[in-house]
Amino acid sequence: MRNTVFVAELPSTPKLNFLQQKGLETRIEKIGYAAMIQNGIAFQPQILVCNKFLVDALLKDAPVIVQIDGDYWHGKPEKYPNPDRRQRKRMALDKSQDAYLAKCGFRVVRVWGSELQHDPAILITRIQQALGQAQIPQVAFSPSAEFRQLALF
Predict the structure, then answer these.
(1) Are strands 64-69 and 53-59 parallel, antiparallel or unpaired?
(2) Contact status, residue 59 vs residue 43, Cβ threshold 8 Å
(3) CA triple 146-149-153, angle to 5 deg
(4) Which of 37, 74, 105, 150 has its CA 20 to 30 A from that of 62?
(5) Mind listing the pLDDT tens digit for each residue in 65-124?
(6) Distance (Å, rounded) from C-alpha 59 to C-alpha 63?
(7) How distant, in Å, are the alpha carbons of 11, 26, 86, 120 from that of 70?
(8) Which pTM was predicted?
(9) What CA–CA distance (Å, rounded) separates 30 from 140?
(10) Interatomic CA distance for residues 65 and 98, integer angstroms
């Protein structure tokens, strides 16, 4: 077998985490990407930002990051009112990550997987809201050399 890694070979790694760590798209990410493409939103999927975080998508024309959160993995409160230890840890990491990225000048748009499956347009609405709130110059966003290096443009 040529350089093939099977999820079964990594029993301690959940399949979805494995996909994200390998830069592969989950089913809900594919729905989000399709919605952005259909609405003409240019983005870079699965990109390392600030040499620290692998984000689901970074818009190409604005400092906006899109995170598509699985209900279980990120502990959607309506579905998991009493999150387990792993969910609480992930929720704290998400909050910390959002704060760090905001300090770096990014707006973070988060959408739950179940919301996206029910109505993909919700992602577009949230992106439009973030674009309205982002402090973007009148001219098109032009990433600096430092930003391009950090975001790996």
Answers:
(1) antiparallel
(2) yes
(3) 120
(4) 74
(5) 999 998 898 989 899 999 999 999 999 999 999 999 999 999 999 999 999 999 999 999
(6) 7
(7) 20, 9, 13, 14
(8) 0.72
(9) 27
(10) 10
